[in-house]
Write a structure and sequence with these properties.
Layout lengths: L3 H15 L4 H29 L4 E5 L9 H8 L4 E5 L5 H4 L1 H13 L3
Parallel strand pairs: 1-2
Amino acid sequence: MYDPGSARALWTDEFAFLSRPGEADIQSDLFYDYRTDVEAYPTWQAWLRKTQPRLLLIWGRYDLSFDLSEPEAYRHDVPGVTVHVLDAGHFALDTAVDDIAGLVRGFVKTPD
C-alpha cells in the first residue's frame, strides 16, 4: 500500500540528487524540452494506432503530474493495452518496485 511517509523519505534522497552541482541546469533543460513532447503526441498516437504494439501501462494513482484518466485514454489508440493503476506516486518504482517487477514479468511471459 502507498505510504506518503515513505514517499516523503524518498524525496530526501531525490533532493540530495537534485542538489548536485549542475543538476538544476540539467533539470531545467529537461523541463524546457518537454514542450516538444507535447507537440509530438499526435505523431506518437498515430504510430500507436497504426502498429498496435503489445503495451503494458503502469500508473501511479497518486501521481500529481499526470491525471488518473490518462491510462484509460490509451485504449482509444491501443484497445488491447494492459493497464495497471498502483497505489503509488510519480516515482512508482521507488515505492512499488516489487509490484511493478511482478507485472512486467507476467506481461513478458504472456504470449501474444
